[in-house]
Amino acid sequence: MSETDRAADRAVVVAEAMRDIAEIDAQTREHGGIDQAAVERIKARLLALAEHEDLFPDEDFPPPDAALSSLMYRIAQDGDRLALYIQTVGNGVSAPPHEHTTWAVIVGMRGQELNRLYGPCAGGGEPQVQHEVVVERGTGVAMLGDDVHSIHIEGASANFHCYGLALEQLSGRRFWNARDGEWREYNDVGTIVEARPDHA
């Protein structure tokens, strides 16, 4: 398949997935807000998208060089709200326990991403691991806005990350600073690469 044909086919499957995700999000907001069942439906839709791995090769979404730990390729966005990214990692990366303040779904495509999921942290104490999930091809995690997770990647990986708000729109996020034993403001949205076909 030529690069042009691949890009065209990719645009179609991404647009279809985003339409379905936006419909799930809108339906739940009309009925009191998104819940765990809704983000699980979004996860299922992204798992279906990940089956088109041939449309998202490393040559189109290359991992970062040694100067960066990861890249977030923005492949779709609905205004300032729903946003879909491909995160690529070249040689391992980790992130401390943190929250998103919006729903978040991560689905594997290549490589492995260990997600540690923590109990409620509203009281401000040290987060405690509840369970772990290895995100890889065929698996994912679905979180609500106040859920806390950390990520741990060894080697290279490429995963879908979908959020209820674009990364630049997130505010009030916190992460656990283990060295000082306290929660702090989390402003790191990573290095975002614009990869939407209509924003080239």
Shape: globular
| Corresponding CATH architecture | Sandwich
> How would you describe the oligomerization state of the chains in this entry?
single chain
Largest pleated sheet: 6 strands, mixed
The CATH topology comes to Jelly Rolls
Record field, number of beta strands: 12
Q: Span between N and C termini?
A: 21 Å
Rg (CA only): 16 Å
- Poorly predicted spans: none
CATH class: Mainly Beta
Order of helices and strands: HHEEEEEEEEEEEE
For the record, what is the CATH homologous superfamily label?
Answer: Jelly Rolls
SS strand fraction: 25-35%
Number of domains: 1
**Estimated structural class:** alpha+beta
What proportion of the residues is helical, as a percent range? Answer: 10-25%
Structural description of this entry:
The chain has 200 residues and is α+β, with helices and mostly antiparallel strands. It has a single domain (3-199), classed as Jelly Rolls (Sandwich). 22% of the residues lie in helices and 34% in strands. It has two helices and twelve strands. It has helices at 3-30, 36-50; strands at residues 70-77, 83-89, 93-98, 104-110, 113-118, 129-135, 140-143, 148-153, 157-163, 174-177, 182-185, 192-194. A six-stranded mixed beta sheet has the order 7-4-9-2-1-12. The chain starts with a helix and ends in a 6-residue tail after the last strand.
